[in-house]
Model the fold of this input.
Amino acid sequence: MLTKLANTLVPIDPLLAKRWSSRAIDANKFISREQILSLLEAARWAPSCYADEPWRLLVCDKATNPEAWEKAFACLAESNQAWVKNAPLLILAVASPRFRHNGEKNRWAFYDVGGACENLCLQAASLGLTTHQMGGFDMAKAHAAFNIPEDLDCAVMIAVGYQTEAEILSEPYYERELAARTRQPIETNCFEGSWGNSFAK
Amino acid sequence: MLTKLANTLVPIDPLLAKRWSSRAIDANKFISREQILSLLEAARWAPSCYADEPWRLLVCDKATNPEAWEKAFACLAESNQAWVKNAPLLILAVASPRFRHNGEKNRWAFYDVGGACENLCLQAASLGLTTHQMGGFDMAKAHAAFNIPEDLDCAVMIAVGYQTEAEILSEPYYERELAARTRQPIETNCFEGSWGNSFAK
Done:
């Protein structure tokens, strides 16, 4: 099985190094109730602005609720459906854009949902599961399919499952699965002292 | 030293359980160059939509660049300054709101910056450091102080340091430091199958 550990200049925590977004998911291995709960707990304990916890997570588990899973799956772009069809678990992450305590706009709603979902994906990695977050889905369709209140904003759909051999994928996903993980060099996005002054390694 | 592990219904990865946002920071312990680099690396390897990596991280290290640190500190709300004064490292996280590849609006810019910063905070926890993300700062002032391009959006300032005894804090921070960490019950934000149908524990 591909591991694709992050190629870092200095060591980082093994959990952070091992999380990556595989697309090769085993269609025959389901996610237990306790595993799902641990994913939700990891998200739940993420930090948030004013402790607002602006995330809403809708679990669609193929094993226990295939109708909900089909509804979520039907919202995905065809390009994603090609490989997501094997994922036993889909989680729709939605953001509440206004603070609970005063109804004002929460600038950090998506920011905090992103942090919570990263926690969720890391917990999955800790359990030996793989996750793949997707923005490519029909959000209006998701709103309609699940009666999501109009004032909430869809963020991502997360596919969760057990990773399997890359050979199950067709192109272009097979090639992408095998490709090395890459990132911008540290100096592109990391500065010190003043803007544009690259962080010296 | 307070640990305040997340109080979860099922176990989660120890790294995720131990991260929390202390305000009691030791003013006499600085963060090494290698530690800072590992924080940046953890953020760098976060996932992002279209691999855009919309985060920009500006490091202001009191030990090596006190002028930059002072500039960042001066942007903070007074209420934050009261305890951030002891933090040896401030990192300003900024979001690039348009995709590199086509210049179109990136709906997930803040989402992805939030994920990257959660990685950064978790890496800090892995190193035995504490982090505290803040939205309470003057963003226009930060733009001006660091010549941040107008088309970028400030997200958060992150205080980083070694945690110390809560007793160094004055009120109301002392009380907050000792208070139990709380979250909404899992059923408030986590649903299954359909909207509003709480996830059954």
In short: The domain at 23-165 of chain A is CATH 3.40.109.10 (NADH Oxidase). Chain A has one domain: 23-165. The two ends of chain A are 32 Å apart (CA to CA). The beta strands of chain A are 55-61, 89-95, 130-134, 153-161, 190-192.
